[in-house]
Design brief:
By secondary structure, this protein is mostly helical. It has a domain of 199 residues: ABC transporter involved in vitamin B12 uptake, BtuC (Orthogonal Bundle), CATH 1.10.3470.10. 70% of the residues lie in helices and 0% in strands. It has 14 helices and no strands. Helix 12 runs antiparallel to helix 13. The protein is globular. The two termini are 39 Å apart.
């Protein structure tokens, strides 16, 4: 361990792993809540075009990928919000076109080499340069500030956009902001995890934490802690075994999910025997600012003017708490 820490590239890789381990689940928890777990995977495809443009123009592939990925995220959100029948086809074209264009541009660039694209696809601890670490730190700080600072508002739009709109939350703006933060997270994590696996780090720690937690705040905290642990362990393992860091991190996260799933089963049965399952977890730790409590006789989460049968169901309001 001491020998590993004596290398500058390993120090940078471990710092990057901590930042990525925090950032990816911080955004991923909202994507899981919205049933958009594969959104990060699609953005990884789009980011490939940015990497290729960075090689062509001999600029930073990370910053170019940020620009292209943000534009792709805004396009994806606008297509999603329209909800037309051709939306899935348009997104598929965007994803596959981004990957194909990226590969073509990389092959045409003067910087193309045997490992030039491989390190971006699967992650590599050797590719985290000092300037990359600064970029990851700056972008990661922005993502964490937004996802944690606007936790209540983002939770509201992920739970029920109609209810959030009625309460005065700027739904469209927050939707676009969340999409942009997811795009930035993809580019932040591509050096450590790789574009093809970044979605897994955004999702797996969250669903693993869900196995043992019963509230949104607890799930968010636990998923971030898991993200940091598996990222550090994966980078360390990749150094010891001389393998790409991305696959090592993701496989460790899946192992943690499997262990938590086994532990969660007897806990759930024990809660059922105690009758705890009859007590619906509170959305609670996420309440919109300046919002009054529920009107007498009105179910929490119910839109004013609608009957209780139209209100959001307890299961949906419980969200990640289950």
């Amino acid at each position: 361990m001491t020998e590993m820490l004596s290398y500058d590239f390993m120090q940078r890789a471990l710092l990057a792993a901590v930042l990525v381990g925090i950032t990816a689940p911080a955004v991923g928890i909202y994507l899981v809540q919205r049933r958009q777990a594969l959104m990060g995977d699609g953005m990884g495809h789009v980011a490939m075009t940015g990497v290729g443009l960075g090689f062509i123009f001999q600029t930073s592939p990370v910053w170019m990928a940020v620009l292209v990925c943000v534009l792709g995220a805004v396009t994806m959100e606008l297509v999603r919000s329209r909800g037309n029948q051709r939306g899935d086809i348009a997104l598929a074209m965007l994803f596959y076109g981004g990957m194909a264009c990226g590969k073509l541009l990389v092959s045409m660039s003067a910087q193309a080499g045997a490992g030039s694209l491989e390190s971006y696809l699967w992650g590599s601890i050797l590719t985290v340069a000092p300037e990359d670490l600064v970029t990851i730190a700056v972008l990661g700080t922005v993502v964490i500030a937004v996802t944690v600072g606007l936790r209540r508002q983002l939770f509201a739009i992920c739970q029920d956009e109609d209810f959030a709109r009625v309460t005065g939350v700027p739904v469209r703006t927050l939707n676009l902001m969340l999409a942009v933060m997811a795009a930035v997270t993809v580019t932040v994590a591509m050096r450590v995890v790789g574009l093809l696996l970044v979605s897994a780090l955004m999702v797996v720690p969250v669903v693993a934490a869900q196995q043992l937690t019963r509230s949104f705040a607890a799930t968010q905290a636990a998923s971030i802690a898991l993200g940091v642990v598996v990222s550090l362990a994966g980078v360390t393992g990749s150094y010891q075994l001389n393998v790409p860091s991305g696959p090592a991190i993701v496989l460790l996260a899946i192992v943690v999910f499997a262990v938590f799933s086994v532990i969660a089963a007897p806990l759930a049965r024990r809660r059922h025997r105690r009758g705890d399952t009859e007590q619906v977890p509170q959305v609670c730790d996420v309440r919109l600012p300046d919002q009054p409590g529920p009107i007498a006789g009105q179910t929490p989460g119910q839109i004013p003017g609608k009957t209780s049968s139209d209100a959001t169901t307890p299961e949906r309001r419980a969200g990640l708490a289950q």
